[in-house]
Amino acid sequence: MNVHDIPQNANEHVRFAAYLDKLQQAAEEDEVGLVRRVLTDPDQTMARSALLRHLDRRAAALHIGTAYEGWVRAMTQATIDHPLLAQRLWEWSLFRAVTLRLPWQPDDLLASSNWLQLKTAAGTNTEAIEILAEAGRTKRIRNAARTSLNHRSES
User: Fold this and answer.
1) For position 1, what pLDDT does the model report?
2) How far is CA 128 from the centre of its chain?
3) Is this prediction's pTM over 0.70?
């Protein structure tokens, strides 16, 4: 899979889909290079959006296992100059810590994005859900956490 095969003059929607396809099919050893190549696209908004979707897909598949740590280090290095992507990787690591009951700080969860707070509110860590029910960033997050807690108590 060579991302250089994607015509740079193609419509950004075509490039977006092509990038996702190439990234999904990439061998592990080619992923970092492909990520860096996508980040050279002149439409940085589209490129970051494609990579955000890719990172979410890969992190969702890897975050429970041991391969996650090496992958996230490599991806963090590849995306270090792109705060949105680096932030999402950091949040996936926090989600992993909460989910696997590894050490994590409540203040980090409360300072995280709505995306992570909602994802955590729907998760399995009762301590984290209780924190979000009390002090989540938005009413939607607090309600989602309370609903999750109510479903747990009914089970």
Assistant:
1) 42
2) 18
3) yes
